[in-house]
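Encode chain A's predicted structure.
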Amino acid sequence: MKNIFVIIAILIVCLSSNQSTGQSVNLESAIKANGSGTLLSVQRIEITNPIFTLKYDYKANGGDVLGIIIPNVWSNSTSNLSGMIIKTGDGNSHDQFAFDAMINTKFDKLNALFEAMHVVNSYKDPWNFIGARLTYGNFTTEAYIATKHLDNQGLAQGNAYYTWVAYHPKHAFVALGKQEQQYWGYIGTKELQRFGSFAFINYQPETKNFWFKSQTGFGAINQKFFCQENYILATSYLTITPFYYLHFSPIVTKGTLTVKIEGKQAADIQNYEIMLGKQLGNNLFGFATGINSEYNKTVLKLSPSFELYKSWKTKLGQCIVELRYDHLHQMGSAFFVIRY
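Encoded structure for chain A:
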């Protein structure tokens, strides 16, 4: 299996050094199963200590990502400089190495993040990824440029631009973004006691493809999800292309009662799903059930879908299990998390 020895080596480091002062370990695994077999699609290994973070993402259908993040290279009362070195690829001629520097600083009421990344490889010219995020009062904006010189065949390529702007008063969050030939929209509530909702939409004018998703919670809502910090994280993650994947927990974790509505179109096929969720007990267990559909202009298919969530917390750490079964596509998936 691709780079399986890297996974084993890092796991050995995790298990042999977990007693280090101030160190934490985060393990995440995504598994998919259908009639063709079972696939470990993603494996995250993350070790954090007071000096640096070692993070490795194994991707079955993409280039692996291995990086060292230093969160505090230099700091003073208003600024912090962090650095990151990343290798992407599967150990062949298409591997890339990225050298990244970020500085967070504050000027009176303005919070700013500036980032510059230089990427080198053996098969085309080096390129740069440069941008900034600015927050002032109820407004946040972020913009990046990725410089592109030559593609794999040596043909000249233009620069790529990514940007979004958000307005976030006390109880609302609204943002618009552009990612090359795609457009994004976001809207959410925040700082409400018994209700929370967040939705996004993506549209690609050239292909007419789209994707939208809304998640709503009632009762004891998950304030860590329905909050400005998470909305900015999600907006940046979806609009600005990242190296590392980010996993968002399922709908049942968003409140006592929850509703998810999702739809997407790819080519001539449209999929829509509505799902209802319920938390039980102390919010460490939840289940959801819904109706999934597929429409290809002539045939409409309907079938149920199910999700389960269970979390265990002890003094040693946390274990999370997320399960999903999609009867329409005969697909089962699982996501496991171990933190200690």
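The chain is about 10% helix and 60% strand.
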